[in-house]
Amino acid sequence: MARLRKLLDRIEPSFQKGGPYEKYFAVYEMVDTFIYSPGDVTRGSPHVRDGIDLKRVMSYVVIATFPVLMLMLWNTGFQANSAMAQLGMSTLEGWRGWILNSFGIGYDPNSLFSNMFHGLLYFLPIYLTTLIAGGTFEVIFAAVRNHEVNEGFLVTSMLYSLTLPPSTPLWQVALGIIFGVVIGKEVFGGTGKNFLNPALTGRAFLYFAYPAQMSGDAVWTAIDGYTGATPLALAALGGLESVTEAGYTWTQTFIGHMPGSLGETSTLAILLGAAFLLYTRIASFRIIFGVFLGMVATSWLFNLIGSDTNPMFGLPWYWHLSLGGFAFGMVFMATDPVSAAMTNKGRWIYGILIGFMTVLIRVVNPAFPEGIMLAILFANIFAPLIDYFVVQSNIKRRLQRS
């Protein structure tokens, strides 16, 4: 590592201004800061909490996804192996089948290793495609603007990948992340200047461009020929009774033992990640609890109103928590420090708005079984306005005191 450090230091002048490769400084800086911590960390304003570099902040978010990743690998493989057993399939075609057969891994849904490895064969191509496609456009924009490549893309790429169904075609994966990076962030000036969450922007693009595959109506199990409905879609069709009749218990959905997009099934794993983010003070507890309180209050309100024609009115709040991507959005998406509200009071309002909108979309609009993604993007748009009114209210109150 010492030799590598010396090599990077020796070639750095060639990438500095006036050097033969100054156009590629963003690429050099990206490699350098990826391997080593940057020499500059925050010491004072506007960062008043402590001396922490952006890389450490981003690394903490990625670390918080580790419990989600582990449960995701097992559940994705388990759902695929179980679907194969139900369909009477003994092997897979294509490169995944070749790997699983050649190394004797097999398709046993009772085998932890088989499930984990099978799940990895679906997640890894999606994540690598996201890194390559999105990273390429990050580097292009950084090189043109002569800016450094920001570590925030590591978080964007991870969160975006975890929101996708395991059966998503790789060309759609690439198209979505390119849209999220370019339209959701770079056209507004890059990291720190975007008002929409880039990962959710890319996911929303796929949601509306390819609704048959991304809407959540069909089971996201990566086996051709396996059909059905997701637990959230079952709830939209027949309420809680339809979910339980399909064999799902609340504990099962809380742990993540059900079909769904890659990282959104296990509420338990997501809450473990939330505990880490709150302990390290990377995520705002005001936003997380605001989203939760907004969801609970709105669910109770609909439960009290009731409906003879819409079974979603009777879905309890704890089922809203465990079904779909609510928990993942609450912890990892709503807390994005750039697109969320900045003031303390504004964060409570912002979070409550997301929780309210999520349940409202799920219950009242039958066209969208999921609601958290649209709710967060809606709140992103209003976050600056929320902060504006909070600041103006503070100014007015202080003027009255004086």
Automatic annotation (TrEMBL):
Its cofactor is FMN. It is a multi-pass membrane protein. One of its GO terms (molecular function) is FMN binding. One of its GO terms (biological process) is transmembrane transport. The modification FMN phosphoryl threonine is found at residue 230. The chain crosses the membrane at residues 57-75, 95-113, 120-144, 164-183, 262-280, 287-305, 317-335, 347-365, 371-391. Keywords: Cell inner membrane, Cell membrane, Flavoprotein, FMN, Ion transport, Membrane, NAD, Phosphoprotein, Sodium, Sodium transport, Translocase, Transmembrane, Transmembrane helix, Transport, Ubiquinone. It catalyses: a ubiquinone + n Na(+)(in) + NADH + H(+) = a ubiquinol + n Na(+)(out) + NAD(+). It holds the Pfam family NQR2_RnfD_RnfE. Its EC number is 7.2.1.1. One of its GO terms (cellular component) is plasma membrane. It is found in: Cell inner membrane. Belongs to the NqrB/RnfD family. PANTHER family: ELECTRON TRANSPORT COMPLEX PROTEIN RNFD, NA(+)-TRANSLOCATING NADH-QUINONE REDUCTASE SUBUNIT B. NQR complex catalyzes the reduction of ubiquinone-1 to ubiquinol by two successive reactions, coupled with the transport of Na(+) ions from the cytoplasm to the periplasm. NqrA to NqrE are probably involved in the second step, the conversion of ubisemiquinone to ubiquinol. Composed of six subunits; NqrA, NqrB, NqrC, NqrD, NqrE and NqrF. This is Na(+)-translocating NADH-quinone reductase subunit B. It comes from Methylophaga nitratireducenticrescens.
